[in-house]
Amino acid sequence: MLLKSCCIYSVGVLSLLFLITGISLVLNNVFPHLLQSVVKKEVVLKNGTEAFEAWENPPAPIYMQFYFFNLTNPLEVLDGERPAVVEIGPYTYREYRPMEQVNFQDNGTKVTAVNTKTYIFQRNMSRGPESDLIRTVNVPALTVMERFKDEPFFDSLISSYMKSTDEGLFTTRTVGELLWGYEDALLRAIQTVKPDLDDVFGLFYKTNASNDGEYMFFTGQQNYKDFARVDTWNGESSLNWWTSDECNMINGTNGASFHPVITKTEKLYMFSSDLCRSLYALYEEDVTVKGIHGYRFAPPSEVFANMTVNPANAGFCVPAGNCLGSGVLNVSGCKQGAPIIMSSPHFYQADEKFVEDIFGMKPNKEEHETTIDIDPLTGIILQAAKRIQVNVYVEKIPSFSQTGNVRTMVLPVVYLNESVVIDDESVMKLKVIAVEQNVVVNIPFMLIGAGIILGGIFMFLMCRQKIPESTAAERQPLLSS
Fold first, then answer.
1. By the 8 A CB rule, do 195 and 226 touch?
2. H-helix or E-strand containing 281?
3. How far apart are CA 268 and CA 265, in angstroms?
4. Strand, coil or helix: what is 47?
5. What whole-number percentage of the chain has pLDDT above 70?
6. What is the mean pLDDT of residues 111-128?
7. Of 160, 307, 356, 426, whose CB neighbour count within 10 A is largest?
8. What is the pLDDT of residue 31?
9. Core vs surface per residue 343-354: b (16+ CB within 10 A) or e
10. Where does the protein principally reside (predicted)?
11. Which residues are CB-neighbours of 109 under 8 A, at least 6 positions away?
């Protein structure tokens, strides 16, 4: 009888222990924190780790798509009318971007590398061949006119040469020439007096099978939030194109990797050499990619807002105080003086005037927003789309009749969509991690469940023990009578 009572009370004690332990673990998030600690230690740029292999040679296929804006009314534009453009594309390239010349430094806390990018044309994923013709603004001619417009001798000489060669404000070139470069007659002629001037022009000239310079990254060995964060670019820890220290800062990763254990409240910083600046993205919504749950981050409109909306952006107005408006960025200072203006495709999130200036602009969130979908535990990119538009600042230049009576405007030339979706092998690895995560996170709830079951058993046994005792007490008076 004593042994039976001990067993019953032992069940009750175990029930209480399981309940108290389970509830304590849930309230203190012990197992989620333990899992995060393990991931933080494993996601490091170090030889032999999966994180390093994925960083060095991304397993998921990356595609670069180009959409051109074909100008349909060049003569009317020279007479001062609004430009009308038609979007033509995509012209799709498979992008390969391995990290090369990898060299670890400072006891493994930093690593240097160059990110060589190669683009291979994919005809089956494109609207047409690279030989398709596009009519657009003559960027080399406009750059030359802007550069020499205040030099009376040179401007008249250049204007005369342009008339003799029938060189105008607009040109018709193939997709391949506009992207990767062509020898320009005007640049070649000016090269005789300006030897430092390159006579080849292309919007992405010298970027195929090339890199944008040497990066030094933090490996994340000392702090998980420093994983793949850029320390220096081309030996410099800051930029010199902008007019404030804040705008010249190099912040975040290069946009291809992010630290593990990401929360919905943090800013994800990135440095983009294409945009010549750093920017950040904020949490937007939960998403599911190939069955994997993730967080979607996107740059808010404040990132490219005018200084009146976001005073921190005052440094991006070049020259100082010369602001074009929200949603556009003058990058001529880092593009060899070419009047290049960057924006989101179709001037998405830009001032309405830029959309109204060009007939054919149809901005929408789904097609034109830059987005990054991330697995919050590992920091692995599930899906991403970087969307940037290349525009040219056009204005009438009195000393060059080639500009006619053209309006002052920001004229779109091409926009790119650099996209990636996680590969199936990486999906399987993440699904295994997700299962392990669910098991570990649910251990406290399993303990609580076991405690409840044991509590039920304890109550049942206690009731069963008391029933025979009460029955026996009722029978004794009957026997005595």
1. no
2. strand 277-289
3. 10
4. coil
5. 85
6. 97
7. 426
8. 56
9. bbbbbbbbbeeb
10. membrane
11. 218, 219, 221, 222
**Contact status, residue 169 vs residue 145, Cβ threshold 8 Å:** no
* Cα(444)–Cα(451) distance, integer angstroms: 10
147: number of Cβ within 10 Å: 19
- Residue 408 gets which letter from DSSP? P
**412 and 391 Cβ atoms separated by less than 8 Å:** yes
Which two structure tokens, joined as six digits, stand for 127? 């609207």
* Mean pLDDT lowest among 144-153, 324-333, 346-355: 144-153
- Residue 479's pLDDT is 45
When computed from its CA atoms, the radius of gyration of the chain, rounded to whole angstroms, is: 32
Residues 6+ apart with CB under 8 A from 286: 293, 294, 295, 296
Round to the nearest angstrom and report the end-to-end CA distance of the chain: 29
Q: How confident is the model at residue 97 (pLDDT cuts 50, 70, 90)?
A: very high
In 3-state terms, what secondary structure has residue 427?
helix
DSSP line for 180-241: H-EE-HHHHHHTTT-TTS-SEE-TTTT-TTB-S-EEEEE-SSS-GGGTT-EEEETTBSB-SS
At 254, list the tokens. 């290069």
Alpha carbon 234 to its chain's center: 21
Q: What angle do CA 53, 65, 206 make, to 5 degrees?
A: 75
The helix-helix angle for 152-164 and 139-148 (nearest 10°) equals: 150
Q: Note whether 231 and 216 are within 8 A (CB).
A: yes
**417 is written with which tokens?**
């969509």
Helix (H, G, I), strand (E, B) or coil at 133: strand
For residues 436 and 439, what is the distance between their CA atoms, to the nearest angstrom?
5
Q: State whether residue 117 is helix, strand or coil.
A: strand
Rounded mean pLDDT of the chain?
A: 89
> Which helix (H) or strand (E) segment is 188 a member of?
helix 185-190
Residues forming a β-bridge with 411: 392
* Residue 377 amino acid letter: L
Q: What DSSP state is assigned to residue 319?
A: S
Q: Name the region of 398 (left: φ>0; alpha: ψ -120 to 50; beta: rest).
A: alpha
The closest alpha carbon to 228, from 62, 44, 95, belongs to 44
Average pLDDT rounded to a whole number, residues 453-465: 69
What is the C-alpha to C-alpha distance for residues 252 and 233, in angstroms, rounded to an integer?
A: 12
Q: What is the pLDDT of residues 231-274, one digit of tens each?
A: 999 999 999 999 999 999 999 999 999 999 999 999 999 999 99
- The pair of structure tokens assigned to 264 is 């919905």
Give the long-range contacts of residues 80-83, CB within 8 A, separation 24 or more.
Answer: 80/404, 80/405, 80/406, 80/407, 81/407, 82/357, 82/358, 82/359, 82/407, 83/357, 83/358, 83/359, 83/409, 83/411
Q: How many CB atoms lie within 10 A of CB 105?
A: 12
Q: Whole-angstrom Cα distance, residue 174 to residue 180?
A: 10
Side chain identity at 282, as an amino acid letter?
Answer: L
